[in-house]
Write a structure and sequence with these properties.
three-stranded antiparallel sheet; 145 residues; alpha+beta; 6 helices
Length: 145
């Protein structure tokens, strides 16, 4: 059963030890706005999937981030979120991965579920069950005359 959160309240997401972001809910409106973000649209057609993912994640984080804790400048002074600071934060690999796992992937879970394929009945993804009953006897072939 799909449980709807009708409050649409921002939530805190822990991304690393001592670093957490308060993010808007991942709504349809937020995803559509991010897809049409100038930085996302500026990604060249020949760009790799990884380059596209980074551009999209940064654009999404810039739109979704309301506040954060545990982020500071080179002198160790806490700083407020800004587009440049959000991009710099997502350039830190563990932060990017945590953002993808705790925010983006959970928001896309329904989309993945409806597009999933069944597992192969044999091989490394064994797990699908057969739906046809096994044949009782081998079929007879027609005689040639």
């Amino acid at each position: 059963m799909l449980t709807l959160d009708l409050t649409n309240a921002p939530r805190w997401h822990d991304l690393a030890s001592g670093v957490r972001l308060q993010l808007r809910p991942l709504t349809t409106a937020l995803m559509v706005a991010t897809r049409s973000d100038p930085a996302v649209e500026a990604v060249p057609e020949e760009a790799s999937d990884e380059e596209r993912a980074v551009a999209f994640a940064k654009a999404l984080a810039r739109r979704a981030t309301l506040a954060w804790e545990g982020v500071g400048n080179a002198e160790g002074t806490a700083i407020d979120p800004s587009p440049e600071a959000i991009d710099a934060l997502l350039d830190v690999w563990p932060i990017f991965e945590a953002f993808q796992l705790t925010y983006v992937s959970k928001g896309l879970l329904l989309e993945q579920e409806k597009n999933a394929s069944a597992l192969s009945p044999n091989g490394p993804s064994a797990g699908a069950s057969a739906t046809a009953k096994p044949a009782r006897k081998p079929a007879r072939t027609a005689r040639r005359g």
